[in-house]
Amino acid sequence: MKIVFITDYLTIGSGGPRFLFNVLKILCKSLNWKLVIVTGYIDKDMKREIALTNGLIELVLLDIFQPYQSRVYPYKQPFRCLRFLYEAAKVLNEVMNETHDKTNTMVIHVHNPLPNLIPYLTTRKIRSKRISIVCTIHHFEETYSLDSMLSKIISVPYQYIIETNIPCNVIHVPSRYVKETL
């Protein structure tokens, strides 16, 4: 069994991605599964933690986004977002081609608003191989928290139409507010 975990940022201090990393690491270790992490940015502490797993976790670092501490979030890096989506979908297709056959099943877990678009880009291939997809939606941005009019205009339809209708098997929502909104 292989789990592919796709997230834009993976840092020692980021709550959701860090929590899911720990859950998936424990799951893979106890069941002898393989975990592939695809991320646009990772800090040195997380790299060190992955290195300590002795090959249990494979890291595919796309190295696209600015450091998380800079507070330049993905929505403020639109061209890097497009590059991330393209590169992550390409990596996912390669992983599906090399590992998925009748004896080797696979789960894809996309996490955060940007990676949640990836199932739209790879749906046909995923469905043809009967791969399970889990999508995590942590929260919906309140428009008052966004700093530009363009962000506000894009955010509402994205969150309430595109992200809530992701072609996946399971939508994981850790907050009551998001669960009630869905």
Protein topology:
Elements lengths: L1 E9 L4 H17 L2 E9 L1 H8 L5 E5 L16 H22 L6 E6 L6 H12 L2 E5 L12 H14 L7 E3 L3 H6 L1
Parallel strand pairs: 1-2, 1-4, 2-3, 4-5, 5-6
Key phrases:
six-stranded parallel sheet, 182 residues, Rossmann fold, 6 strands, globular, alpha/beta, 6 helices
Quick overview of this protein structure:
By secondary structure, this protein is of the alpha/beta class. The protein contains six helices and six strands. Strands 3-2-1-4-5-6 form a six-stranded parallel beta sheet, sandwiched between helices.
Structural notes for this entry:
- The protein has helices at residues 15-31, 44-51, 78-99, 118-129, 149-162, 176-181, and strands spanning 2-10, 34-42, 57-61, 106-111, 132-136, 170-172.
- With 182 residues, the chain is of the alpha/beta class.
- The chain has one domain (2-181): 3-Layer(aba) Sandwich (Rossmann fold), CATH 3.40.50.
- A six-stranded parallel beta sheet has the order 3-2-1-4-5-6, with helices on both faces.
- Helix 1 links the parallel strand 1 (2-10) and strand 2 (34-42).
- Helix 3 (78-99) packs parallel to helix 4.
